[in-house]
Input
Amino acid sequence: MAKEKTLFFCTECGAETPKWAGRCASCGAWNTIAEAPKEKRVKAAGTAVVRNRDTVGPVSLKGIDAHEEARMSTGMEELDRVLGGGIVDGSLVLASGDPGIGKSTLLLQMARNLASRGIKVLYVSGEESLSQIKLRALRIGECSDDLLFMAETDMSEIHEQALAIRPKVMIVDSVQTMVLPEVESAPGNMTQVRENTSFLMRFAKTENIAVFLVGHVTKEGNVAGPKMLEHMVDTVLYFEGDTTTTYRILRAVKNRFGSTNEIGVFEMSGTGLAEVTNPSEHMLRGMPESEPGSVVAVTMEGTRPILVEVQALISKTSFNLPRRTAAGTDFNRMNLLLAVLEKRVGASLSGCDAYLNVAGGLRVTEPALDLPILLAVLSGYRNQPLPDHTVAFGEVGLTGELRAVSQALARVREAAKLGYRTCVLAEADREKIGKDAPKGIKLIGLRNIREIPKDLSFS
Ligand code: TYD
Ligand code: MG
Output
């Protein structure tokens, strides 16, 4: 008799092991190894490979007919951008995020927009009853009859109905509530989630129906269950932001059909999610004027420059070890920049607490934020505001040198468009921009942070 090999798997990352262990060797999580259910011992783990029926064996690139994938607009520019230009036929998209962040609302709005153009959409909810869905839909507005709703958790029933209705787009809310009857485990259990996802992947590809799957997130911030779901689907959209504020940022963490840098910005309103087409304006809303410790930075999110405010509070420490925190950016990077400042400019920051914050709810980790962080800290430390209408960007090296960053011209243009009159940047970027500089904004190029004037006047 053939020996059975894989009997256990990690419920967190899906790694399989022949023996039980207290800690997963692959992802390091504790207490996540579970015995695979019986039927799994026979069948290989669900994989979502779909064969292309018209190819036999390997072919060269020339032998493959490729057509631009057909895309449908979702009727929301912010969502289209994150998807890489619209919904691709037959794709499987996972939408994840904290509970209450707006996943169901966004997908319902998308479904409504599609249906209003005569595209058939099936919205399956395993979480809410039909009357609850109706109440939500009424807040958003009238829906056309091409949008059909179904409250169901049995995947075989959903499959049957979908084949009868033949929608162009199907929404499944959420993967954790769905049950495949042939899999013997409770809904939300790793095996169920995995088999349901792989079932939907095959369904999407064979029927050429785009499927949007909602996935909840665990308190550690993983798509519940696991990284493994992310490997199985074509696109992973992640909703960031705080349910206590009204702004929501949608990011593509993975996208087989587009770039992963683009973000979409939305605002939760009384009638659903509204698109924010000018994110810089909202990021800077409520910003103080001429206050020490506040600097406007220009950051790039994909192809879009966004202005954000960087704030630093520097105060004398009353502990042996100064307190430091960084919200909305990288903590280690901040510590490194404080050390560079101390060494190269002679600011004695080792006796100071430093609190750094990127206001507006965006998380920025790109190096172009180095100079703004440094200026905010200096301005807070010297209690000296920067001149009005000043922005900054640039990477700072360990010797205090300023380095060029990507898309300097796009950043300067955005700042000029929003009425900023001075831009502090790396000299290398200033030279590169040269004559293309937009009118009305003065560019101040620095080679090293030692060139920052003592009074931060930049005139
Ligand atoms: P929801 O889409 O149900 O979140 P998820 O599916 O991610 O769990 O969003 C629910 C929240 O959004 C809820 O707290 C109420 C709020 N909301 C509004 O503020 N305005 C609206 O028009 C709608 C539909 C919801
Ligand atoms: Mg929901």
In short: Confidence is low (pLDDT under 50) at residues 39-51. The CA atoms of residues 225 and 426 lie 45 Å apart. The pocket of thymidine-5'-diphosphate (ligand 1) is lined by residues 97, 99-105, 136, 139, 268, 270-272 (CB under 6 Å).
